[in-house]
Amino acid sequence: MTTFAPFSDWLAGQEAPEALKTVVAAVAEECVAISRVVSLGALAGALGVAGSVNVQDEEQKKLDVMTNDMLTDRLKGCAAVAAVGSEEMDLIEPTGRQGGYLVTFDPLDGSSNIDINAPVGTIFSILPAPEGRAPAEADFLIGGRHQVSAGYAVYGAQTMLVLTINEGVTGFTLDDQGQWRLTHPDIRVPADTKEFAINMSNRRHWAEPVRRYIDAALAGKTGPRAKDFNMRWVAAMVADVHRILMRGGVFLYPWDQREPDRPGKLRLLYEGAPMALLIERAGGKATTDGTQPILDVVPTRLHDRVAVALGSANEVDAIAAA
Ligand code: AFP
């Protein structure tokens, strides 16, 4: 009978500051509580819209607000957290403490999936806080290579937690006692793939290189790629990235001409950067356009957006060459 180590044992064995471990543990524990609310859906009054709009000018779902409050309250009570930032909050929320860490999160990624019972998730990113003074928004704008930890929970067929603290990417599965269990000790992204993820309905809005790349894939065996491709689009980045970490693939959310001043739809601090750290540490590539690493993009504002082209390294290279 295989035994799966508890998350707490794995975390205790990591070479990392104890204060950081307390923050990672707090996020991991709150994701268990979030998974319960998500799984209850209508029974917890968690479906439907909240009747409010967030800083992204997006209609908030009830679960967006509920999960944002859960994570914010939990982290504000964590001694090593100096401030938090969230997709659902205009401004950062200082905790009144100094030093330790800054945490950004998308409390519920894939909100459009909530009411149809499709996968959703929570994405988090942890940065070092400034010492000796209260943090300001500018302290969050230091770029993804400064992340000391990042990860996500995906609420799907299984509930899983995938994260990185030092090197490597590790996965845990929630058991029937509400405990995370180590099930994926060393996640690696295969270098090659025949599977891409993109919202095809936007094809007419893409820049020409993206159209060329996708059209070549669609041409299959008789086309320039000389192989058939498969397509997936879950409309929750966390689920598409999880699939890529499990079996390879590429995920694209490119710039498009609908809002030419906007680099892309996805947010840099709490979607692009944490997912890029995971993908790179699992041996994949995470870029804005096939070439520029997302982790090299330095934000100018808390809710900056970014174009995304990430996944299997050799296929990201094919995107760059299109
Ligand atoms: P929501 O959280 O508003 O549903 O957006 C999810 C997301 O930011 C990302 O998780 C998906 O990959 C992407 O948007 C889906 O975008 P489309 O709905 O345009 O396909």
Describe the structure.
This protein is an alpha+beta fold and 322 residues long. It has 2 domains: 7-184, 2-Layer Sandwich (Fructose-1,6-Bisphosphatase, Chain A, domain 1); 195-321, 3-Layer(aba) Sandwich (D-Maltodextrin-Binding Protein, domain 2), CATH 3.40.190. The chain is 28% helix and 24% strand. It contains 7 helices and 17 strands. β11 (195-197), α4 (208-219) and β12 (230-231) form a beta-alpha-beta unit. The longest helix is centred in the first third of the chain and has 23 residues, at 18-40. It is globular, with a radius of gyration of 19 Å. The protein starts with 6 loop residues before the first helix and ends with a helix. The relative contact order is 0.14. The mean pLDDT is 96. The site of 1,6-di-O-phosphono-alpha-D-fructofuranose has 12 residues, from loops.
Give the termini distance in whole angstroms. Answer: 49 Å
Shape call? globular
CATH architecture annotation name of the largest domain: 2-Layer Sandwich
Helix content: 25-40%
Q: Which structural class matches the secondary elements?
A: alpha+beta
Q: What is the beta-strand fraction? A: 15-25%
The DSSP helix count reads 7
Largest sheet: 8 strands, mixed
Estimated radius of gyration: 19 Å
Number of domains: 2
Strands ordered across the widest β-sheet: 4-3-5-6-7-8-9-10
This entry's quaternary arrangement is single chain
Return the CATH topology of the largest domain. Answer: Fructose-1,6-Bisphosphatase, Chain A, domain 1
List the helices and strands in order.
HHEEHEEEEEEEEEHEHEEHEEEH
Uncertain segments are none
- By DSSP, the count of extended strands is 17
GO molecular function, one term: fructose 1,6-bisphosphate 1-phosphatase activity
Binding site for Mg(2+) 2: 106, 109, 271
Pathway: Carbohydrate biosynthesis; Calvin cycle
Catalytic activity: beta-D-fructose 1,6-bisphosphate + H2O = beta-D-fructose 6-phosphate + phosphate
